[in-house]
Design a protein that fits this description.
By secondary structure, the protein is of the alpha+beta class. The protein is built from 21 helices and 27 strands. Among the domains are: 269 residues, 7-stranded beta/alpha barrel, CATH 3.20.110; 221 residues, Beta-galactosidase, Chain A, domain 5 (Distorted Sandwich), CATH 2.70.98.10. Helix content is 32%, strand content 28%.
């Protein structure tokens, strides 16, 4: 074995922050544990494992024996631990200071718990920008792994990828290993012999070459059908058997050993990008379909292989354009990061600051910030978890400044303006001990974030219904199974029937204070479908704004003149917040109303994170009586109060009106793609109060709405938990 082929196997295990405990446990039982059980028997083999910090923390808390086994294999030299950013953020999305901080803090955790020396890292989703190289080196990393697609984008051919390269930024040099796409699609979906034959071909062509496999550990048991295939049918054991059987020419090793034994193939600068599928998903929906059509046409003509090396998809950062809600979340994360940095620059230290930093890092976990074959941004529990940690970080910084939400703190209130969503225009921020509210005057004067500090929950973390490229697959229907195991990228599975009938799209974001004007004869069904005729110019229109302050009270006052059914109307709406109160006072004044304008005025509210389908999540009337589960469509008349109760979350959101109102409610649901198939996902509860406008003698009409947030139930539980902990 003078010039063996070195096969570097790197397995990436990850569960996102906020995923359900049962999902963690199932993945452990189906993937992580049985994989280790099988690998442990093959003492001749050396592999590398990367486990994200969110998953590692869960494993250490729930299955410390598994972590102990990892530590033992690290000590014996059988496993190299690949480090990374602590909570798996997209590195291109977070500030440089947070990149270095996430990487170094996780390396320390791994060293302390596993006794591992961390010299390389996994780049989350392999989203790469060249300027990141210097940050990785500053954080102590000597190598990372990217896909061969990155290297081909730099102009290399397939034959130039059987090794590794060095790259640099700001004179800091980093080794970069190309992960093999052919191996990624063979393992574990094709028989082990296919991988051996491919490796043998490479060894014959390039003696002493190196091939790197780096991919998700969840492919080995968690992806649909893989548990039976990989373990029950013995694929993994057969694969390891084949590696051992060919050890005379094939050496299975770790990244550090390979780098120490084989010189680099050269120096290379790598264009920004990710793996091929990710670049496709980042495109707008219509462009994805166009790309797929051209791809298939050229394949049918036998030309695709000639042009594919020159084809580039989208840019990861444009997920924030494709899904504006993720941009809102990203900008919220940046607000917290900047505030933390200001605290650090003032010289403040201590446990509260350290805890806030850890909460910020958790809120940077990547999965809720994009969408591809997995649910990602469409999954409410992942978005809610991101906001939970970001709000918790803010709460800790408030606590450090004696401005916390607890009742024993001095109440306060403040208002300010700034470009909080990085669109080059100004938004307004209202905050007190209990709530933090962000309002966008230039986009309909809508509330786009409403943080409830006591439970770290953003009631505006909803997602809009929008077209997706895969919706044409929904319209075609599910594929028929052939009994084989295929990649999740190739499967069309429906998790519910009739999804093609549930497709619907919105022309506005699902936020609060969406100012609709509908025809008098509009139906609740039209409103719920988003197909009701819009008679006004106010839904996305620009409002002029003023910030008003008085002792213990702030107000954002917004005004706009616009046409409704051909008539020029003037609207003033105010959002008022008092010190220490968990109540928003929302007032509308509509002027210049003609007497014969027969329309509905319907300011829409959306509330996220209050799921449907459970009896302890329900609408209530003014007396506290249940009006049905939150997923129901209500058509109420002549009421002055409606509440939304989520007993599991411990919250009661109330809407009180100073004049009788009719109310429509309906669930906002998306048809989205996940690893398990296409599914219907509850995004928000829409509450639409509406009135037939009857002007007074001066052509005016007004209403005041009090939006209250009661979290006494949740706070009582917190007190009970704290008391039990100190007992």
């Amino acid at each position: 074995m003078t010039h063996p082929l070195r096969l570097v196997l790197v397995f990436h295990n990850h569960q996102p922050v906020g995923n359900f405990d049962g999902v963690f446990e199932q993945a452990y039982q189906d993937s992580y544990l049985p994989f280790l059980d099988v690998f442990e028997r093959y003492e001749q083999l050396r592999i590398a494992i990367h486990t994200s910090g969110s998953l590692m923390e869960w494993l250490d808390a729930n299955h410390p024996e598994y972590v102990d086994r990892l530590a033992g294999m690290v000590a014996s030299g059988r496993i190299e631990i690949v480090g990374g950013a602590y909570f798996e953020p997209i590195l291109a999305m977070i500030p440089s200071r947070d990149r270095v901080g996430q990487i170094t803090s996780y390396s320390k955790w791994l060293q302390d718990r596993l006794g591992a020396t961390i010299s390389g890292m996994w780049v989350p989703e392999r989203v790469w920008e060249q300027s990141m190289a210097s940050d990785l080196v500053r954080a102590g990393m000597s190598y990372t792994i990217l896909d061969d697609f990155h290297f081909k984008n730099a102009g290399l051919t397939e034959q130039e990828l059987f090794g590794y390269y060095v790259t640099e930024d700001d004179a800091r040099v980093l080794n970069v290993l190309p992960g093999s796409e052919p191996m990624r699609y063979k393992i574990p979906f094709q028989p082990p012999e296919e991988s051996i034959n491919y490796l043998k071909y490479v060894a014959e062509q390039q003696p002493g070459a190196m091939v790197v496999f780096g991919d998700d550990g969840e492919k080995f048991g968690t992806w649909p059908g893989t548990k039976e295939h990989v373990y029950d049918h013995g694929w993994l054991a057969n694969f390891f058997d084949a590696l051992v059987a060919n050890s005379e020419w094939l050496k299975v090793t770790t990244p550090s050993e390979a780098i120490a034994s084989v010189p680099p193939l050269g120096k290379l600068y790598i264009p920004e990008g990710s793996y091929r599928e990710m670049t496709e998903w980042a495109l707008p929906a219509a462009k994805i379909n166009e790309y797929e059509d051209v791809h298939h046409e050229l394949e049918d003509e036998g030309k695709w292989h000639r042009v594919s090396q020159f084809v580039r998809g989208g840019y990861w950062r444009n997920f924030k354009v494709k899904y504006p809600e993720t941009n809102t979340m990203y900008c919220r994360m940046q607000m917290v990061s900047q505030r933390l940095q200001q605290v650090v620059e003032r010289g403040e230290t201590g446990e509260l600051v350290d805890q806030a930093r850890l909460e910020l890092y958790r809120g940077q976990c990547n999965c809720a910030y994009w969408h591809g074959a997995f649910g990602g941004a469409y999954l409410p529990h992942l978005r809610n978890a991101v906001y939970q940690h970001l709000i918790a970080a803010d709460n800790l910084l408030d606590q450090a400044e004696n401005r916390a939400w607890q009742a024993d703190q001095q109440p306060w209130v403040e208002i300010g303006a700034g470009d909080f969503n990085s669109d080059g225009r100004s938004e307004a921020r209202l905050a007190n001990n209990r709530l933090m509210v962000l309002v966008n005057p230039v986009e309909g004067g809508q509330i786009y974030e409403l943080d409830v500090k006591s439970i770290c929950h953003n009631l505006q973390a909803a997602l809009t219904r929008r077209p997706e490229a895969y919706h044409r697959s929904v319209l075609r229907g599910p594929s028929s199974g052939d009994g084989g195991v295929s990649s999740i990228h190739d499967q069309v599975i429906f998790k519910q029937e009739g999804l093609d009938q549930r497709l619907g799209y919105d022309a506005w974001k699902r936020q609060c204070l969406v100012d609709h004007f509908f025809p008098a004869g509009v139906t609740p069904e039209e409103v719920a479908r988003g197909s009701a005729e819009e008679l006004g110019e106010f839904v996305l229109g620009t409002y002029e704004s003023k910030l008003r302050r008085s002792e213990g009270r702030v107000q954002l006052q917004m005004t706009r003149e616009g046409r409704v059914a051909g008539h020029l109307l003037h609207i003033t709406k105010g959002v008022t917040l008092n010190a220490g109160a968990a109540v928003l006072e929302i007032a509308y004044l509509i002027e210049n109303l003609p007497n014969d304008l027969h329309i509905h005025f319907a300011p829409e509210f959306n509330f996220a994170g209050l799921p449907s389908g459970a009896d302890d999540r329900y609408f209530r009337d003014g007396e506290g009586n249940s009006q049905g589960q939150l997923g129901q469509q209500l058509d109420l008349a002549n009421t002055t109060e409606l509440g939304l109760v989520d007993q599991w979350l411990g919250i009661d959101v109330g809407l009180d009106f100073d004049r009788p109102t009719a109310i429509w409610t309906y669930p906002v649901e998306t048809v989205s793609q996940s690893e398990g198939g296409f599914e219907l996902v509850h995004q928000s509860v829409a509450v639409v109060p509406h009135w037939h406008l009857l002007p007074d003698i001066n052509g005016c009409w007004s209403v005041t709405v009090k939006l209250s947030v009661d979290t006494q139930l949740a706070e009582q539980r917190m007190e009970e938990v704290a008391a039990a902990a100190t007992a």
